[in-house]
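Exercise 7b. Backbone tokens:
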């Protein structure tokens, strides 16, 4: 795969607008539509472009409460990690789960309707997992920059 200014421009534009037509994308980067399409398809094939998604407004979907939750496990074993990760994948409130370094094993991004529903998740989901030793919640107040896309 060519990694040049055309590829860089294609990726930058697609990062901002994944729904742009191939014709418009080609015009903006200065390639023919067929050459542009070949590059995009190759970027998809090799996994540089992993997919396209819609960015949803959590507030309008009734998810007005967002928290980042640091979770420490009671045991530092592969089995404990697998058990925790399996349980978390079944929770609709958890939108991201990252295994991290530092004083905690996991960092979660959790979205619920409000504080009351987060408390229920905290108690009835996280609090019931045998692998969980500590929970530290950081409530999101505002995001001045968010490029998750």
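Sequence design result:
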């Amino acid at each position: 795969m060519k990694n040049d200014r055309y590829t860089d421009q294609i990726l930058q534009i697609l990062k901002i607008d994944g729904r742009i037509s191939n014709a418009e994308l080609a015009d903006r980067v200065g390639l023919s539509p067929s050459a542009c399409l070949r590059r995009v398809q190759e970027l998809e094939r090799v996994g540089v472009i992993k997919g396209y998604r819609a960015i949803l407004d959590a507030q309008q979907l009734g998810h007005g409460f967002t928290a980042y939750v640091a979770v420490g496990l009671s045991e530092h074993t592969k089995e404990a990690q697998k058990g925790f990760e399996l349980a978390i994948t079944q929770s609709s409130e958890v939108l991201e789960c990252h295994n991290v370094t530092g004083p905690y094993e996991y960092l979660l991004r959790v979205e619920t309707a409000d504080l009351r529903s987060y408390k229920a998740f905290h108690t009835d989901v996280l609090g019931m997992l045998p692998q969980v030793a500590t929970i530290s919640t950081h409530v999101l107040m505002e995001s001045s920059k968010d490029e998750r896309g």
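Instructor comment: Residues 5-45 form a domain with the Arc Repressor Mutant, subunit A fold (CATH 1.10.10.10). The chain has a mean pLDDT of 93.
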